[in-house]
Each structure stands twice: as C-alpha cells, then as structure tokens.
Amino acid sequence: MSNSVVVAVEDPQATDTVVSVANRLGLSVVLSKDDDRPVEELPAGEGTRLMVLDLDAPAFGGLDTCRRLQMFSDILVIALGDYSDSDRTIMALRSGADCYIPKPVSPEMLHAQMEALLRRHPWVTNRPEMVTVRGLTISYLRKEVRLGGEVVAVTPAEYRLLASLASRPGRVVSASELLREMSGYNCPEHEAQEIVKVHVSRLRNKIDWYPDQPGYILNVRGFGYMLERRTISRQAPVPAA
C-alpha cells in the first residue's frame, strides 16, 4: 500500500502545489472537499501519513481539526496559513500541527517539510498494524492497547507514548522525543522528563502487575525510556475469591 497525503485546501493554486509535490515524493493524494465528512475521519486506508490542512478554510475545521487529529490519529499535519508571524506559528504547533507554512506555498519549502516529517517519523511511515511485546499488544489500526487480551483504558497521550516506544522496542527514546511525538511540544530535555515521567507512572499502574517493579517501560537513567522486550519471570497476582 502506498503512502498518501490528505489535501484539505480550498485555494486551487495551493492545492495544485501540494499535489505536485506529493507526486514527486511518490505519495498518492486524497482530496478533501467541504461537503465531505469531518476531515479527521478521512481518508480511507491505513496508508495515510500526512495531511496538508488550510487553517483559513472554515470548512475544514482549522485548529480544532489539528487538536482532534492530535488526540485520535497518528497522521502528521502540515498547516497552511494566510500570513506568517511567530504567534500564528506557535498557535498552530501547540494545537497539534507538526509544522506551519505561510501562503503562498513555496513548493521547495513544502517538499523539504514533507521529506523531513517522513524522515523524522519513520515509525509512522513503516509501522506494522500492531506490535506485541510479551502479553502487551499495541494496535496502531484500532488505536488500542491490550494486556493479556483485555483492553486497557489509556488516555490518548498514554496511547501515543506507548505507540512511540512500541515502534522501536528495546531501543531507548529520549523524553523530549517522546513528548514531541505525544503532543508536538518541543522543550528542553529536563522539562520533557518531568512531563513524560507523569505519563509513564500512570501507564505503569495500568500495564504492570507491580508498579514499583517496572516490567514493560524501563527508565534508562540519563537517556530516556524503552519498551522492554525480554521476558521477565513474574508471577501474576492471584485473583480475589
């Protein structure tokens, strides 16, 4: 299945630019129209990796769509806007966009941003439908976590953290990278550590039998976290009578 990009843009010239760049990168294109279902429900297919979203087109939901995509999808968002200033850029990034490009759209800038996003997030581009580590299963297709076959109630942020770690089990991922993939928020490593630590603690309470003896998510001090692949001998708690 080829990778695809959803184009949620009203301006015909900008649309032509996006389609041309996508074709050069070997991406198939799904054009969204203002009479379509909500844009975050597009497109059909697991191969969708990118969305180019015109923030100034009311039909596509603007920043609200960015926020919903951030919560419920792994699609990478390139936001377009009618003007460029730091406040506008910050607002788009904090709402869930992965980058912001002012209009008129520069084909060279768009090409570079698309390449950079796909290179920076290869786990999104090449991931399998699901990853299973011992009794823990993370389904990218269903946005679901199961432990021993039972669904675990996780928040969107917890799911994205676990999905990020599961994309490279046994490899250490820095707290700043995890936070960026969870929320699109860039910050210094020490600040990211404090934020991610809270989410990891909550996840451990949900997926480890003994929260004080982490079994799935390990902290590699000074470097970050990793999803432990190795089998750890551990006796399950005996259900209460």
Secondary structure layout plus pairing:
Elements (H helix, E strand, L loop, with lengths): L3 E5 L3 H13 L3 E4 L16 E7 L7 H11 L3 E6 L4 H9 L4 E4 L4 H14 L1 H5 L3 E4 L2 E4 L4 E4 L2 E2 L4 H11 L8 H9 L5 H19 L9 E4 L3 E4 L14
Helix pairs in contact: 1-4, 6-7, 6-8, 7-8
Describe the model:
By secondary structure, this protein is an alpha/beta fold. The N and C termini lie far apart (50 Å). Strands 2-1-3-4-5 form a five-stranded parallel beta sheet, with helices on both faces. The chain folds into two domains: 4-125, Response regulator (Rossmann fold), CATH 3.40.50; 127-227, Orthogonal Bundle (Arc Repressor Mutant, subunit A), CATH 1.10.10.10. Mean pLDDT is 78; it is low at 232-241. The protein has eight helices and eleven strands.
Short summary of the structure?
By secondary structure, the protein is α/β, with parallel strands linked by helices. It has 8 helices and 11 strands. The chain has 2 domains: 4-125, Response regulator (Rossmann fold, 3-Layer(aba) Sandwich); 127-227, Arc Repressor Mutant, subunit A (Orthogonal Bundle).
Total count of helical runs of at least 4 residues:
8
CATH domain fold name of the largest domain: Rossmann fold
CATH-level-4 superfamily name of the largest domain: Response regulator
The tally of strands reads 11
Strand content: 15-25%
Distance between the termini: 50 Å
Q: What is the helical fraction, as a range of percent?
A: 25-40%
So what's the overall shape? Answer: elongated
Number of domains: 2
Structural class: alpha/beta
Largest sheet: 5 strands, parallel
